[in-house]
Specification:
By secondary structure, the chain is of the alpha/beta class. The protein folds into four domains: 181 residues, P-loop containing nucleotide triphosphate hydrolases (Rossmann fold); 182 residues, P-loop containing nucleotide triphosphate hydrolases (Rossmann fold), CATH 3.40.50; 128 residues, no CATH class; 76 residues. It contains 21 helices and 19 strands. The strands form four sheets. Strands 1-8-2-7-6-3-5-4 form an eight-stranded parallel sheet, covered by helices on one side. The chain has a six-stranded parallel sheet with strand order 9-14-13-10-12-11, covered by helices on one side. Strand 11, helix 9 and strand 12 form a beta-alpha-beta unit. The two termini are 41 Å apart.
Length: 623
């Protein structure tokens, strides 16, 4: 178990730079957001690479430098899309020629690009900012995070930075032996969440905006009224619904979210453009999770509002972390609403118990262990087929594949994340008491609770459902028709990013097969895996060892062998004795065994070369 070493801040210190010139090696719990830990790393003379969970953090800091007030005359290189190895090397050379330290900011998944460009980074300070985001990222982008952690393994000058550190039991193994430090600020300012539960949180937000537009918001501090609202909601479609419902225009709104084709398309439907934290202030700023961490705002009269829907996993907020990340994002000390936090939420619904979660995790781990055993004992074709399955990034798959070593292992961080999410999200949203307890755990004062007149308004049905696989699949088919010389459209590439297997789905499955599976992406991927050449190569190799031409085989035996074969290769298909017809020409036959007639098939000849998959109307998948 790690023990945090206290670092006492001097009386009156507001920022880390007031008493710290460089960051320590290990994990630094800065306790408060906005205390300038990243600033220390950017203004000191050390060559520094700061790794961030999203590009908005990079954009936010780039816009603050050069900074004469902080005595920092140099620029920061942000490594994002469109920045190449040559650009990084040129920037480093320019810094050396001017006598400036190298200051690079990069997203987690692009750190390898910086390391490859610089080669020798042993003397660089590596800062993994907002490292609590590693846990969630590890659960669905394990390859990128493993590559980041592998890239900094063995380096001495590494700092993992957060105001909301991950509990010891959940952090990656690579961090468990590091020294831990905690800044003791003495008495800290506490946010006072003003909470209100409602069945329709989006409609409540609409009413709040309408009241604000009419000058009737009803929130006033010593004669000051909020002139700007900063609304945090992790759903672009939810943001669209609120903007539409409140009748807002592009001149009144900033939406700060991931700049993707899908988000641009969603907002363009109502005439709204995507903004950044550097865009001019407007009365209403909407933020998704891309700016929950590390992005600063400047407003003398801005009020922070969190809107979370417990029934939509995308919009739930982990109160123990995200609320603290959001609190204090407005930096102006003369803003009377700086430490006020309004939270509109519903309790949501979940039927999962702790016992149910543990049983599910153990079941998935056992399944992964079986697959790993088969992988280790299998031949090359078996391994290729299983690796193809793992690469599909199935959320229920706990085995992870390492391309560098061609090995499988248990993704323990996925299990940790599920437990962490249960503790800090699902349990929080089960009832109001849990929410109150979560606020208390986060160190917030919950003694104050205001009643809002607009919560009781009539609510409209929320229109927050996201695009289904069916819609994007049908759209993708149309986009493929627009391909020129094999170059797919940007929209097609976006859909491929959302569903990485969709191109191979169109290549190996018919539209009738996909439709026959009711566009269920899990079932479609199961069928895809079965039909992939590497899977079929492995199946055929096994069958050649099992069946001999002219032999008689009982139906029960055939079904049992196909079941064993499918399970060992991760094929999620209900086995049937008739499956043998896909690989051999057979004749129905009967034989007598101990006086009983046994039904089966007699193999006539092998016909692998004319392999055919049955239509989806007769195709069955395992549960």
């Amino acid at each position: 178990m790690q023990v945090e070493k206290n670092v006492k801040a001097p009386h009156g210190a507001k920022y880390l730079r007031d008493f710290m010139s460089e960051l320590p090696n290990g994990i630094l719990n800065k306790v408060e957001t906005g205390c300038g830990a990243t600033t220390v790393a950017l203004i000191n003379p050390e060559n520094t690479i700061i790794c961030c969970p999203n590009k908005q953090m990079i954009i936010n800091k780039q816009n603050q430098y050069p900074n004469e007030e902080l005595g920092c005359p140099y620029t920061i290189l942000g490594v994002m899309q469109g920045v190449y190895k040559e650009d990084i090397q040129q920037y480093v050379e320019e810094c050396i020629s001017k006598g400036h330290p190298v200051k690079i900011m990069v997203t987690y998944n692009s750190f390898y690009k910086v390391k490859e460009a610089i080669h020798e980074i042993g003397d660089y300070r590596i800062v993994v900012d907002e490292y609590q985001a590693l846990l969630k990222e590890y659960s669905f982008r394990d390859k990128d995070i493993r590559r980041l952690l592998k890239g900094i393994r063995g380096l001495v000058k590494v700092t993992f930075l957060s105001a909301t550190p991950v509990p010891y039991g959940f952090i990656p193994d690579e961090l468990k032996d590091l020294d831990c430090y905690r800044i003791d600020w003495g008495q800290t300012v506490m946010c006072k969440p003003i909470r209100r539960v409602t069945n329709k949180p989006y409609q409540a937000a609409i009413k709040m905006i309408l009241d604000h537009k009419a000058g009737a918001l009803g929130i006033e501090i010593e004669g000051n009224k909020p002139e700007e609202l900063y609304l945090y909601i992790n759903s672009v479609r939810g943001i669209k619904a609120i903007i539409e419902g409140a009748g807002l225009t592009n001149e009144q709104v900033r939406v700060i979210c991931s700049d993707s084709d899908e988000n641009r398309k969603t907002l363009a439907e109502i005439g709204i453009e995507i903004s950044t934290t550097a865009s001019p202030n407007k009365p209403y700023t909407f933020c998704t999770s891309t700016v929950f961490c590390g992005s600063d705002f400047y407003s003398t009269s801005g009020l922070t509002v969190i809107v979370s829907d417990g029934r939509n996993s995308n919009t739930r907020l982990d109160i123990a972390t995200d609320v603290l990340q959001i609190a204090g994002r407005i930096r102006n000390e003369d803003n009377p609403f700086r430490y006020m936090l309004l939270h509109i939420y519903n309790t949501g619904s979940t039927s999962q118990t702790r016992e149910g979660l543990d049983a599910y995790i153990q079941k998935r781990i056992h399944s992964a262990e079986v697959m790993i055993k088969v992988f280790n004992l299998g031949d090359e074709k078996d391994k290729e087929a299983i690796a193809e399955r793992i690469k599909m990034q199935d959320e229920d798959e706990f085995a992870m594949y390492d391309e560098d070593t061609n090995t499988l292992s248990i993704n323990q961080m996925k299990a940790n994340y599920l437990r962490y999410k249960f503790e800090t999200i699902d349990e929080v949203y089960r009832n109001g008491v849990a929410i109150r307890e979560a606020y208390a755990k986060a160190g917030m004062d919950v003694s104050t609770a205001y009643q809002w007149q607009y919560i009781a308004e009539e609510y409209l049905e929320s229109i927050t459902t996201s695009n289904s696989f069916r819609n994007l699949y049908l759209e993708y088919l149309e986009e493929l028709k627009k391909s020129v010389f094999g170059q797919r459209t940007q929209r097609a590439k976006f859909i491929e990013g959302k569903y990485p297997t969709i191109y191979r789905i169109t290549e190996y499955l018919t539209t009738e097969e996909v439709k026959g599976l009711h566009y269920n992406i899990t079932l479609v991927n199961d069928l895809l895996h079965y039909k992939l050449p590497k899977t079929q190569d492995a199946v055929k190799a096994r069958l050649e060892r099992l069946y001999k031409t002219s032999g008689f085989y009982p139906l029960k035996y055939i079904k049992s062998e196909f079941s064993r074969l499918y399970n060992s290769l991760g094929i999620k298909i209900k086995p049937s004795a008739s499956d043998i017809k896909q690989y051999y020409e057979v004749q129905e036959a009967q034989e007598t065994n101990r006086g009983k007639r046994v039904h089966g098939y007699r193999i006539v000849e092998k016909c692998f070369c004319i392999f055919h998959i049955p239509s989806s109307s007769t195709y069955k998948l395992s549960a």
